[in-house]
Amino acid sequence: MSTPEHVAAPAAVLPLTGPFDSMRDFLLALERRGRLLRVASMDQDLFEPTGFAYRAIEQLGYHAAPAFLVERIRRGGEWIDGPLVGNVFPGWLAEALAYGVPSPSGSDRALYNATREHLARKLGADGRWPKIPPVVIDQASAPVREVIHRGDDIDLTRYAFIQTNPGDAGAYITAGTVFMEDPELGRNVATYRCQVKGPRRIGLNCEVGQHGWNFIQRAKKRGLAAMPAAVVIGADPITFSIGTSKITGLGEDELEVSGGLRGRPVELVRCETSDIHVPAHAELVIEGEIPTDQGEEEGPYGEVYGYMGLKKPWNFYMDIKAITHRPRPWIINAFAGVTKVTMSMPQAVSNFVQYKRTIPNLVDLYRPVETIGVVLLSIDKRMPGDGMVAGQHIAAGDLFSKTIIVVDKDIDLHDKNQIFHALGTRWQPSPGSLLIPQTRGFPLDPSAPTRWVTSKMIIDATRQLPAEGGPEKWPQVSRVIIQEKSPGTFELVDRRWNEYFQGWEG
Ligand SMILES: Cc1cc2nc3c(=O)[nH]c(=O)nc-3n(C[C@H](O)[C@H](O)[C@H](O)COP(=O)(O)O)c2cc1C
Ligand SMILES: [Mn+2]
Question: CA 20 to 30 Å from 374, out of 183, 270, 360, 396?
Answer without folding.
Answer: 360
